[in-house]
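Risk register update: the risk that structure generation would not scale has been downgraded. Supporting records follow, first protein first.
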Amino acid sequence: MGILRFVLWTTLCIGFGIFLGTHQLGGKTAWQTLQGAWKEQSPRLGKVKDGAEDLVDDVKKKVSTQDPPKERHNEEDRKAIDQIISKRSKG
Protein backbone atom coordinates (compact mmCIF):
# COMPACT_ATOMS: atom_id res chain seq x y z
CA MET A 1 0.00 0.00 0.00
CA GLY A 2 2.85 2.37 0.86
CA ILE A 3 4.57 1.88 -2.49
CA LEU A 4 1.33 2.51 -4.35
CA ARG A 5 0.81 5.77 -2.42
CA PHE A 6 4.44 6.80 -3.12
CA VAL A 7 4.11 6.13 -6.86
CA LEU A 8 0.77 7.97 -6.98
CA TRP A 9 2.08 11.09 -5.22
CA THR A 10 5.28 11.11 -7.29
CA THR A 11 3.25 10.87 -10.49
CA LEU A 12 0.93 13.67 -9.38
CA CYS A 13 3.84 15.95 -8.44
CA ILE A 14 5.62 15.35 -11.74
CA GLY A 15 2.40 15.94 -13.65
CA PHE A 16 1.74 19.17 -11.75
CA GLY A 17 5.27 20.37 -12.50
CA ILE A 18 4.85 19.63 -16.20
CA PHE A 19 1.49 21.45 -16.15
CA LEU A 20 3.04 24.54 -14.51
CA GLY A 21 5.94 24.52 -16.93
CA THR A 22 3.90 24.18 -20.13
CA HIS A 23 0.38 25.55 -19.57
CA GLN A 24 0.02 29.24 -20.38
CA LEU A 25 -1.81 31.50 -17.98
CA GLY A 26 -2.30 35.01 -19.35
CA GLY A 27 0.03 34.38 -22.28
CA LYS A 28 2.94 33.20 -20.12
CA THR A 29 3.78 29.96 -18.41
CA ALA A 30 4.07 29.93 -14.62
CA TRP A 31 7.85 29.64 -14.96
CA GLN A 32 8.02 32.73 -17.18
CA THR A 33 5.82 34.64 -14.73
CA LEU A 34 8.13 33.71 -11.84
CA GLN A 35 11.20 34.75 -13.84
CA GLY A 36 9.61 38.14 -14.56
CA ALA A 37 8.76 38.63 -10.89
CA TRP A 38 12.34 37.74 -9.92
CA LYS A 39 13.76 40.26 -12.40
CA GLU A 40 11.51 42.98 -10.95
CA GLN A 41 12.75 42.25 -7.44
CA SER A 42 16.43 41.90 -8.35
CA PRO A 43 17.37 45.62 -8.06
CA ARG A 44 16.06 45.66 -4.48
CA LEU A 45 17.78 42.40 -3.73
CA GLY A 46 21.01 43.82 -5.16
CA LYS A 47 20.89 46.71 -2.69
CA VAL A 48 20.36 44.31 0.19
CA LYS A 49 23.22 42.13 -1.05
CA ASP A 50 25.57 45.12 -1.31
CA GLY A 51 24.65 46.21 2.21
CA ALA A 52 25.26 42.71 3.52
CA GLU A 53 28.66 42.56 1.81
CA ASP A 54 29.63 45.88 3.41
CA LEU A 55 28.52 44.59 6.80
CA VAL A 56 30.57 41.41 6.38
CA ASP A 57 33.65 43.44 5.41
CA ASP A 58 33.26 45.65 8.50
CA VAL A 59 32.96 42.63 10.77
CA LYS A 60 36.01 41.01 9.19
CA LYS A 61 38.02 44.18 9.81
CA LYS A 62 36.97 44.28 13.46
CA VAL A 63 37.59 40.60 14.09
CA SER A 64 40.82 40.17 12.15
CA THR A 65 43.98 39.67 14.18
CA GLN A 66 46.64 40.61 11.69
CA ASP A 67 48.86 42.15 14.35
CA PRO A 68 48.84 39.91 17.39
CA PRO A 69 49.26 41.67 20.70
CA LYS A 70 52.85 42.13 21.76
CA GLU A 71 53.87 40.67 25.07
CA ARG A 72 55.95 42.94 27.18
CA HIS A 73 57.75 41.41 30.15
CA ASN A 74 59.98 43.30 32.45
CA GLU A 75 63.10 41.85 34.04
CA GLU A 76 61.29 40.84 37.27
CA ASP A 77 58.79 38.77 35.30
CA ARG A 78 61.55 36.99 33.43
CA LYS A 79 63.40 36.17 36.65
CA ALA A 80 60.21 34.84 38.25
CA ILE A 81 59.52 32.61 35.24
CA ASP A 82 63.12 31.36 35.23
CA GLN A 83 62.82 30.48 38.94
CA ILE A 84 59.59 28.56 38.34
CA ILE A 85 61.16 26.65 35.46
CA SER A 86 64.28 25.83 37.46
CA LYS A 87 62.18 24.56 40.41
CA ARG A 88 60.17 22.28 38.11
CA SER A 89 63.26 20.87 36.38
CA LYS A 90 64.92 19.99 39.71
CA GLY A 91 61.89 18.31 41.24
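Supporting record for the second protein:
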Amino acid sequence: MVKIVHAQTVLPENVLEELKRKTGENATKDAIAKAIEHYLMCPYTHEEPLERRLEEVIKKKKRA
Protein backbone atom coordinates (compact mmCIF):
# COMPACT_ATOMS: atom_id res chain seq x y z
CA MET A 1 0.00 0.00 0.00
CA VAL A 2 1.31 3.45 -0.91
CA LYS A 3 1.39 6.04 1.83
CA ILE A 4 0.15 9.43 0.62
CA VAL A 5 1.30 12.65 2.27
CA HIS A 6 0.26 16.26 1.86
CA ALA A 7 3.07 18.58 0.70
CA GLN A 8 2.87 22.33 0.48
CA THR A 9 5.10 25.06 -0.94
CA VAL A 10 5.14 28.77 -1.64
CA LEU A 11 5.76 29.93 -5.22
CA PRO A 12 5.65 33.31 -6.89
CA GLU A 13 2.50 33.60 -9.00
CA ASN A 14 4.47 34.00 -12.24
CA VAL A 15 6.43 30.79 -11.53
CA LEU A 16 3.21 28.86 -10.95
CA GLU A 17 1.70 30.22 -14.16
CA GLU A 18 4.84 29.24 -16.10
CA LEU A 19 4.71 25.75 -14.56
CA LYS A 20 1.09 25.38 -15.60
CA ARG A 21 1.94 26.55 -19.11
CA LYS A 22 4.88 24.17 -19.47
CA THR A 23 2.98 21.16 -18.09
CA GLY A 24 -0.21 21.95 -20.00
CA GLU A 25 -2.22 21.67 -16.79
CA ASN A 26 -4.78 24.19 -15.51
CA ALA A 27 -4.95 22.98 -11.92
CA THR A 28 -2.09 23.82 -9.58
CA LYS A 29 -1.98 20.35 -8.00
CA ASP A 30 -1.89 18.66 -11.42
CA ALA A 31 0.89 20.95 -12.69
CA ILE A 32 3.01 20.34 -9.59
CA ALA A 33 2.38 16.58 -9.69
CA LYS A 34 3.36 16.42 -13.37
CA ALA A 35 6.52 18.47 -12.77
CA ILE A 36 7.57 16.26 -9.86
CA GLU A 37 6.94 13.09 -11.85
CA HIS A 38 9.02 14.47 -14.73
CA TYR A 39 11.82 15.47 -12.36
CA LEU A 40 11.95 12.00 -10.82
CA MET A 41 11.88 10.19 -14.16
CA CYS A 42 14.12 12.48 -16.23
CA PRO A 43 17.58 10.97 -16.89
CA TYR A 44 19.12 14.46 -16.89
CA THR A 45 17.94 15.44 -13.40
CA HIS A 46 21.23 14.77 -11.68
CA GLU A 47 23.49 16.39 -14.26
CA GLU A 48 25.15 19.77 -13.85
CA PRO A 49 22.83 22.77 -13.87
CA LEU A 50 22.01 24.00 -17.36
CA GLU A 51 23.57 27.41 -16.71
CA ARG A 52 26.96 25.88 -15.95
CA ARG A 53 26.83 23.71 -19.06
CA LEU A 54 25.89 26.69 -21.21
CA GLU A 55 28.74 28.75 -19.76
CA GLU A 56 31.19 25.96 -20.65
CA VAL A 57 29.89 25.79 -24.23
CA ILE A 58 30.24 29.56 -24.60
CA LYS A 59 33.80 29.49 -23.22
CA LYS A 60 34.75 26.72 -25.66
CA LYS A 61 33.34 28.68 -28.60
CA LYS A 62 35.27 31.80 -27.58
CA ARG A 63 38.52 29.80 -27.42
CA ALA A 64 38.06 28.35 -30.90
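The longest helix spans residues 28-41. On this basis the risk owner (M.S.) recommends closing the item.
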